[in-house]
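Q: I have two molecules that I believe assemble together. Could you output structure tokens for the complex as a whole instead of separate predictions?
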Amino acid sequence: MKNYVAIKRITTIGSFAGLALIFSYVEVLIPFNFGIPGIKLGLANLVVVTSLYFLNTKDALAISLIRILICGLLFGNGVSIIYSLTGGLLSFFAMSVLKKSRLFSIVGVSIVGGFVHNIGQIVAAGLVMDSFVIIYYLPVLMVVGSLTGFLLGFISAKVLTILDKQLKAKLG
Amino acid sequence: MNKNPYKIRILDLILIAVIIILAGFIYFFLYKSNENSNGSQAVIKIAGDEYGRYSLNDNQTFEVKTTDGFNKIKIENGSVSVIDASCPDKLCAKSKAISKSGEVIVCLPNKMTIEITENESSNEIDAVVS
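A: Yes, here they are, computed for all two components at once.
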């Protein structure tokens, strides 16, 4: 019995992580570049936020970490893993805390996720470059992060609502 | 009422509004404190260390070489832009030219930043104790 649960968990996390990886790769094809470092759709967060609500916190964290590490190794350059890791971890921490508080809906949680992710990256970049002139980009990154978070949260909500219905239909 | 976490709530919309307003404040704070005036020199830093200062009045094109790569900088008509770089994404080259005090262009992979400042001698306090 225990083996069954473990296998199910591993394969589920693996599938989600793979999906997140593909999303990360595919978003390069969608032009979302304004010449500002750190501006991106963050499509992989769609998977992270969804798994945060569909699976549990630990599994979602595993998915996020796997995605960041493999993505960094495959497509990253030098310090990019540090930026991704900082933004990703802070963002995840903020989202899990907010989710537990039950104050916001999944959309709000995702908004904060995107917001913190971008701020985390910019702070990490400032520390690595030992220069905080990059704070000049903060307002744009805050707004774009929040808006992409809003969009992704909205999509997650739709997906989860459908999944919920399917689950209820199965069990019901 | 607060049951379904998949339905958007008023608090979410308030959250977005607050963030946008906050961003607006920070934006004005960053610009107002520089009086949004046309700067007079470009300060280029690599990994936090000053590489050089260049007057915006001297039209020139030059390369900033670092251990990891290079960035080609062009100063023309009182503004600075990056026309080529060794970094993979070339975000710096895609950035708009900057000319106003406080504006910056960065190349993260090369750890290079270009900032427009007012004309003054280096106000960095460098104390190297070895």
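A: One point stands out. Residues 138-171 of chain A form the longest helix (34 residues).
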